[in-house]
Amino acid sequence: MRLLHVGISESSRWFAPVMTNSPLSLSVLDLIPVRSTQNSSDAIAASIALAQRADELGYRRYWVAEHHNMPSVVSTNPPVLIGIIAANTQRIRVGSGGVMLPNHAPLVIAEQFGILEAAFPGRIDLGIGRAPGSDPVITSLLRSSGAVSEVDAFPRNIGDIAALLHPDGASLGLHGGRTYEVRATPRAVGTPMVWLLGSSEYSANLAASEGMPYVFANHFQGDATTQALDAYRRKFQPSELLAEPRTFLTVNVSVADTTREANALALPQMQQMARLRSGQKLSALATVEEAAATQMTPSQQDMIDLMEKNWVIGEPAEAAARIRELAAKFGVDEVMVGPEASAHADADPMTSPDRVRALELLAEQLLEPSADAAANFVRPWG
User: Fold this and answer.
1) Distance between CA atoms of residues 202 and 34, nearest Å
2) Domains contained in the chain, CATH given
3) What is the pTM of this model?
């Protein structure tokens, strides 16, 4: 059976507008990296500890990505990881950055996030993206279940998820004029906040036309951020879902007590990205010592040099000033940081001490130490 028609009444909403004139908030994007000294269990344990520290420090949300068959990335299944992280934290919103919708049936995503919202009311974000998140072979395996992958189906599938998640459910049109009601979960009392993610102007235009909150992938497509956000804000159509445009900034960071140490901690991930972009075989994330002993090709070094300019790398005051500058430039009151630090070879495999340290240093600079952590908590219904 295929979703032919879904309906939401004029009074039914799947997220509510949030006031934007507020102090700068910080959030976290995590790919759950696995170092050469870790196994996947270690990496998950380290990310749980990182999320717990982010929760304690007053970060607003903690999102996990969807990537497949990558030896340095454990984050393959956002709904499973969101459940694990939400169960091990108290206040912070937990979500996907994002679910790659073409890989999945809309009903499955709606059911997964409906359950998560029921288990952790008011704490779940559903970030939806259009990219495959892997190579063509893995994409084919993921879509063997019949998930719709056509570009023109993406807007419809987003609408289907919105309707399926709502407590009033969706109406499916059947042959002969009959209708069939379906809900992601029975007797729901709330829904996750749904965000549209993207790395092109297509996604900006779609989010604007649907009146949805939108996040552009500035952390890996920074040159196009201004154009995409300008298009989103210029073309935004106010809706009952959202009264005005809402977005935040994403940025890769490496923050340490000294700029030299911050650069050393960032180098393993930058080398990994250079290998990926040059088609070289990947491995687990190098330690600081392994990266320092690695020789890159001239073209790969050029990529690393560019990343050094686009990432926020440095000591605390310098990094905080750069983040404030970026937030002002793009007109946002929230910044989602990807803490890209690796670790030294002697670090406990079940921890990511330098990623934790980066969050602590940024919080000291950018978050009010006396503020109640709950002040950063935003429920999906306002």
Assistant:
1) 33
2) 1-198 (3.20.20.30), 251-367 (no CATH)
3) 0.88
